[in-house]
Amino acid sequence: MIVYQLACERGHYFEGWFASAEACEKQAVDGRLQCPSCASANVRKLPAAPHVRTSASDAPQLPVRREEARREALVALRTLILASTQDVGRQFAEVARRIHYKEEEARNIRGRVTQDEAEELREEGIQALVVSPEVLPSEEIH
Questions:
Q1: Residue 62: is its pLDDT beyond 70?
Q2: How many angstroms separate the CA atoms of 64 and 110, rounded?
Q3: With bands split at pLDDT 50, 70 and 90, how would you rate the model's confidence at 5?
Q4: pLDDT digit string (tens) for 42-52?
Q5: Could you give the 3-state DSSP secondary structure of residue 131?
Q6: If phi over 0 gives left and psi between -120 and 50 gives alpha, with beta otherwise, what is residue 30?
Q7: Could you write out the three-class secondary structure of 26-94?
Q8: Is pTM beyond 0.70 here?
Q9: For the chain, what are the domain ranges?
Q10: DSSP-assigned letters across all residues of 109-122
Q11: Cβ neighbours of residue 105 under 8 Å, at least 6 residues apart?
Q12: Who contacts 24 (Cβ-Cβ below 8 Å, separation ≥6)?
């Protein structure tokens, strides 16, 4: 797993996790690498400082701490999403449109859409955040 610090053209900064450098490049070329804040596909990798091993004792500790912090962050994010959103399942696109066009009360929702539905929502200016199955497994969305 490789982690890159990324930024979009609008100045939003975020982190991307990839299986390899090639996977990152492929997602960028395919247009799948997008800013989670504004959905811009104009994303660039930021310079990163490598970890320099200064002693034998610090090498094993850094990855363990990072992995533990990552797991804790995933649990916290999952908990926040589940607690602060209403599950609308496969009706996500329909409900998101009704909320966007003020036909229904505004609220935070979660659910599932196809790739085509996600693109249609984006074209209509309806903001939605794609959440990795690692954060919110599909069995937690009906």
A1: no
A2: 32
A3: confident
A4: 898 888 765 55
A5: coil
A6: alpha
A7: HHHHHCCCCCCCCCCCCEEECCCCCCCCCCCCHHHHHHHHHHHHHHHHHHHHHHHHHHHCEEEECCHHH
A8: no
A9: 2-45, 85-142
A10: EEE---HHHHHHHH
A11: 99
A12: 2, 4, 16, 18, 33, 45
